[in-house]
């Protein structure tokens, strides 16, 4: 097992989010995470015309936030993660829902895309090297149903920065992923930065937050979103989102 996989396998629960403590925008990040979920699933429903999916696979599901939300689109959802602690929490939070299942698996060896018509790769493709990435996508597109949908969220480097490997991932240019997805015959339905998606959703989020206490803090943070959200881009890295579709033929 390489150092990147080892880092993610041993990451303590919520430990991956410890970096937010160094930002003044920690509160905004919590609100933004919910806003991103809302926006991504709104996009999926719109772009697929309300299509109902039979089987979804959530790769690197962590504690299952995306898996549980995916139930609004799919009849069955299976999440995998290399970290046993994440999977334990995901199972606890699923509360025995028969439509949800979770397993400890390494995505580099995962071979369970058969019959899936919706697959999520949220913030995990940067964790594998290029050869492993191509093998993973090859299994995915070969085993999925024709016309299936793939959602990808991945950290990309600033256009003026050089691609590099960090302690928990490979940081590549957006153009690398664009070319990679095209090479597998995937059609891009949507391609946007997380920052753009969150900014579009924050106004609607603000309308749903009750006044008083924590809600007032959120409102003040959201009011500064134009400044704070832009600072989340960072000078080196940013999250980018793709919604992709497989060809409708085999």
Textual characterization of the structure:
This protein is an alpha/beta fold. 41% of the residues lie in helices and 22% in strands. It has nine helices and nine strands. Helix 2 packs across helix 7 and helix 7 packs antiparallel against helix 9 (225-231). The two termini are 34 Å apart.
Keywords:
single chain; 250 residues; alpha/beta; seven-stranded mixed beta sheet; two-stranded antiparallel sheet; 9 strands; 41% helix
Present the secondary structure layout:
Elements: H1 3-9, H2 26-47, E1 53-59, H3 65-70, E2 74-81, H4 84-94, E3 100-104, E4 118-122, H5 130-143, E5 149-157, E6 164-166, E7 169-171, H6 174-183, E8 187-193, H7 194-208, H8 214-223, H9 225-231, E9 237-245
Parallel strand pairs: 1-2, 1-4, 2-3, 4-5
Antiparallel strand pairs: 5-9, 6-7, 8-9
Helix pairs in contact: 2-7, 7-9
Separation of the first and last Cα atoms: 34 Å
Report the order of strands and helices. Answer: HHEHEHEEHEEEHEHHHE
Shape: globular
Mind describing the biggest β-sheet? 7 strands, mixed
Task: List low-confidence stretches.
Answer: 10-25, 206-215, 225-234
Number of strands: 9
Classify the secondary structure makeup into a structural class.
alpha/beta
- Helix amount, in percent? 40-55%
Q: What order do the strands of the largest sheet run in, or round the barrel if closed?
A: 3-2-1-4-5-9-8
Average pLDDT reading: 80
Radius of gyration: 18 Å
Strand coverage percent:
15-25%
What's the helix count?
Answer: 9
What's this entry about, in short?
The chain is of the alpha/beta class and 250 residues long. It has helices spanning 3-9, 26-47, 65-70, 84-94, 130-143, 174-183, 194-208, 214-223, 225-231; strands at residues 53-59, 74-81, 100-104, 118-122, 149-157, 164-166, 169-171, 187-193, 237-245. Helix 7 (194-208) runs antiparallel to helix 9.
């Amino acid at each position: 097992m390489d150092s990147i996989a080892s880092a993610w396998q041993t990451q303590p629960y919520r430990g991956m989010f410890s970096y937010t403590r160094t930002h003044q925008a920690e509160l905004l990040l919590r609100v933004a995470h919910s806003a991103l979920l809302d926006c991504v699933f709104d996009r999926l429903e719109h772009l697929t015309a309300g299509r109902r999916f039979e089987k979804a696979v959530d790769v690197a599901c962590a504690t299952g936030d995306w898996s549980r939300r995916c139930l609004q689109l799919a009849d069955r959802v299976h999440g995998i993660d290399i970290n046993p602690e994440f999977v334990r929490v995901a199972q606890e939070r699923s509360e025995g829902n028969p439509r949800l299942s979770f397993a400890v698996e390494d995505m580099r060896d995962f071979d369970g895309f058969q019959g899936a018509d919706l697959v999520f790769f949220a913030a995990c493709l940067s964790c594998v090297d290029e050869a492993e990435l191509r093998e993973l996508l090859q299994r995915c597109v070969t085993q999925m149903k024709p016309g299936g949908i793939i959602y990808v969220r991945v950290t990309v480097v600033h256009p003026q920065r050089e691609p590099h490997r960090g302690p928990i991932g490979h940081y590549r240019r957006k153009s690398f992923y664009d070319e990679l997805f095209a090479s597998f015959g995937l059609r891009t339905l949507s391609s946007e930065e997380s920052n753009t998606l969150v900014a579009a959703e924050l106004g609607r989020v603000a309308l749903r937050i009750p006044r008083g206490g924590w809600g007032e803090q959120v409102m003040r943070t959201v009011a500064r979103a134009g400044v704070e959200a832009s600072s989340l881009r960072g000078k080196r890295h940013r999250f980018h989102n793709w919604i992709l579709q497989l060809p409708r033929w085999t």
